[in-house]
Structures are given as C-alpha cells and as structure tokens.
C-alpha cells in the first residue's frame, strides 16, 4: 500500500521525471534522505517502470497520427506471436492494446504524412500475413496528451 508521501512523489515525477531529490522533498514535505529511499523503493517494487523524455512529434516531422484497428486472420499462437513481434519492433507503433468488439487490436501509429502511414499499413502491417483487415482513424488534433495516471492522494 502506498502512503500519502509516496503518492505525492509519483504525482510529481509524472509531471517532471527529472526532478531532483531536493525538488521532490520540497514538493512533498519530506527531507531528502527519506524521499530518496522512497523513490528507490517505488522503482524496485515496479511502481516506477522507467523514465522518458516526451518529444514534440511535429518538430520531428511526424505530422500524421492515427489509430489503426486490426483484425487478425486467426487467433493461433503463431499469428499472435508474429503480430506481437512486429509491434515490439516497430518504432512507428506508439501504443498497442488488445480490444473487444469487431477488431482484435488497436494501434496508435505515427508517420511523417498520410502517404507514409499508408505505406506502413500496406507494405508492413498488411504484409505480415496474419492481418485480416484494418480500419484507420486519423487523429485531426490531440486535445489532451498526458500519459500520467491518476494517483489519488
């Protein structure tokens, strides 16, 4: 179970993963040493899985974002393994989730432009040999991009 200090630490780190121990301790009301120990425990116990920089996709030339719904030909172990390996190896796939409904998975995919997205779908994803069908939903504008999980204090 997490105490209030640990929850506050998690909230601060989600907003600023580069916060120093002193900044964390000031923000949560603990002295630096116990604050550092709590961060280490949160890392060791898997509450904090990694630290990452959030990049501006448009500045990198990634002007096309889409959700691609994917239905597999079958649900054999080999097909699922092939699909999972493709997702793991593809930098263009930002997120992948198994879903309910008419499709098996939904991907969030980034590309330089709509043509590059089409190439990704037609020449990489569809050519895996395990995909029955896809439906693409272009993201026109992102209203909120957070990535931070709600941590109740």
From TrEMBL:
Heme recorded as keyword: no
GO biological process: regulation of DNA-templated transcription; response to amino acid
SMART domains: HTH_ASNC (SM00344)
Any one GO CC term of the record: cytosol
GO molecular function: sequence-specific DNA binding
Keyword Transcription regulation set for record: yes
A Pfam family it matches: HTH_24
Keywords: DNA-binding, Transcription, Transcription regulation
Boundaries of every HTH asnC-type domain copy: 2-63
PANTHER family assigned to the protein according to its UniProt record, in alphabetical order: LEUCINE-RESPONSIVE REGULATORY PROTEIN (PTHR30154), TRANSCRIPTIONAL REGULATOR AZLB (PTHR30154:SF34)
Protein's UniProt name: Lrp/AsnC family transcriptional regulator
Lineage of the species this protein comes from: Bacteria, Pseudomonadati, Pseudomonadota, Alphaproteobacteria, Rhodobacterales
């Amino acid at each position: 179970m997490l105490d209030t200090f640990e929850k506050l630490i998690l909230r601060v780190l989600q907003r600023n993963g580069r916060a120093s121990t002193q900044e964390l301790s000031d923000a949560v009301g603990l002295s630096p040493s116990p604050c550092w120990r709590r961060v280490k425990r949160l890392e060791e116990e898997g509450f904090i899985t990694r630290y990452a920089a959030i990049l501006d996709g448009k500045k990198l030339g990634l002007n096309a974002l889409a959700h691609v719904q994917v239905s597999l030909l079958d649900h054999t172990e080999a097909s699922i393994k092939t699909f999972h390996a493709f997702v793991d190896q593809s930098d263009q796939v930002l997120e992948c989730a198994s879903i309910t409904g008419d499709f098996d998975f939904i991907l969030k995919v980034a590309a330089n432009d709509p043509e590059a997205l089409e190439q990704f779908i037609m020449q990489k994803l569809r050519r895996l040999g395990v995909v029955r069908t896809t439906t693409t939903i272009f993201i026109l504008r992102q209203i909120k991009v957070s990535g931070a999980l709600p941590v109740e204090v």
